[in-house]
Design a protein that fits this description.
It is a single chain. This protein has twelve helices and ten strands. By secondary structure, the protein is α+β, with helices and mostly antiparallel strands. The chain folds into three domains: 50 residues; 80 residues, no CATH class; 188 residues, no CATH class. α4 packs antiparallel against α5, α4 packs across α6 and α4 packs across α7. The longest helix is centred in the N-terminal third of the chain and has 24 residues.
Length: 379
């Protein structure tokens, strides 16, 4: 143990810790210690506390006894007249508990032995009365009691410690995660249509040949199906990404990005797929566009701030990557609506399968989209 203590003061310790990458972790501790040192220097050296406005009631018991003696000697010197007695009464009232002090000096542990002093104290004893107004100044309360410093320390520890514990269990970055702005994610009456479209898409997907795997990312932590059907004007799905042990990793989903034309139901020409990573403050988004929207320079320029443009096509795969997550959105089923609008300009239905993987610690540079026609949006 002694050797361990001595190693803390060794000149080789700090360089070793820095070489091991401990520096950033020790920075908060060093800052705290420096703050405490500067606080003591300020409190005791630069701006020390100076008591002001103290009165006789704030004296210690030994000085209160001396105060009573002075009052008694002054009363004798002034001839024990009525004005002198009134003045002595006022001076004793300033002690707050003058009756206790006088009785202690006459009969208590601090009993006076000098006969002359005893005689003087007996003269002022009838004038000594308790003064509740003065005693209130020294009576401990909630804010000036002996436990106040302890309560302050405990309160600060609970405040700071609670914030650290909460941030450990529920990271503060969750406050920045994407939330649906609509009152619901499905228009009333569209549930059955969505379920049917999703079931049909799953059957089609199972019957189709398996999609070749471009990169083996291991076992996904989440796989979700999201379906838009025309008429679902509140479409905005979101799914929580969690491990098998229910550890929250982030959130992903899809929602309406842009509509075209007028009238009801809305004609959706672009749907955005997004992912939120609890370890990354950004929400990564890509915009899945209809054929008409993808080829329209004006629409692409309008949606450029939302994310990269991706052409919607059956089987197309869109990758979204954050600091610790890889999310794949695969177009399982796609059908365009028809009408007065340009051909292939809005979706009648669109089903995408969203799969999420945690990135491996030794992952290389971010991968690019495996399939689908993508590209930077032209301004």
């Amino acid at each position: 143990m002694w050797e361990s203590i001595k190693s803390l003061f060794s000149p080789k310790t700090i360089p070793f810790l820095i070489s091991q990458g401990v520096g950033p972790k020790l920075l908060p501790v060093g800052t705290l210690i420096l703050g405490i040192i500067l606080g003591f220097i300020w409190a005791y050296g630069i701006a020390p506390v100076v008591p002001v406005g103290a009165g006789p009631v704030n004296l210690s018991d030994s000085w209160k006894r001396e105060y009573v003696k002075q009052v008694a000697w002054q009363l004798q010197a002034e001839g024990n007249s009525d004005p002198a007695r009134e003045n002595a009464r006022k001076q004793l009232n300033a002690l707050g508990d003058s009756s206790r002090v006088v009785n202690q000096m006459l009969n208590g542990d601090q009993k006076e032995t000098d006969p002359n002093t005893v005689t003087l104290l007996q003269q002022v004893q009838p004038l000594a009365q308790d003064n509740p107004e003065q005693l209130a100044k020294i009576t401990p309360g909630f804010l000036n009691g002996n436990f106040t410093p302890i309560l302050c320390i405990l309160g600060l520890a609970i405040l700071v410690g609670g914030a650290v514990i909460v941030n450990t269990i529920i990271p503060l970055t969750m406050l920045l995660q994407r939330r649906s702005k609509g009152p619901a994610t499905v228009v009333p009456g569209q549930d059955a249509a969505r379920r049917k479209a999703m079931a049909d898409a799953k059957k089609m997907d199972q019957a189709a040949p398996p999609t070749p795997v471009a990169v083996d990312r291991g076992t996904p932590v989440g796989q979700y199906m999201s379906t838009y059907v025309m008429g679902d004007d509140l479409y905005d799905d979101s799914f929580s990404i969690e491990t098998a042990s229910s550890e929250f990793l982030g959130e992903t989903g899809a929602g309406i990005s842009k509509t075209i034309g007028v009238g009801d139901p809305k004609k959706v020409t672009a749907i955005e797929a997004w992912v939120f990573d609890k370890n990354d403050i950004r929400t990564v988004t890509k915009v899945i566009m209809s054929e008409h929207a993808f080829n329209d320079e004006g629409i692409r320029a309008e949606l450029a701030p939302k994310g990269e443009a991706v052409l919607a096509k059956p089987g197309g795969i869109i990758l979204l990557e954050t600091q610790t997550l890889t999310v794949q959105a695969r177009v399982v089923d796609l059908a365009y609506g028809s009408g007065a609008l340009p051909p292939n300009s809005f979706f009648e239905r669109l089903t995408i399968e969203i799969t999420a993987w945690p990135k491996k610690a030794s992952a290389a540079a971010p991968a690019t989209d495996a399939f689908g026609e993508t590209g930077p949006i032209k301004q």
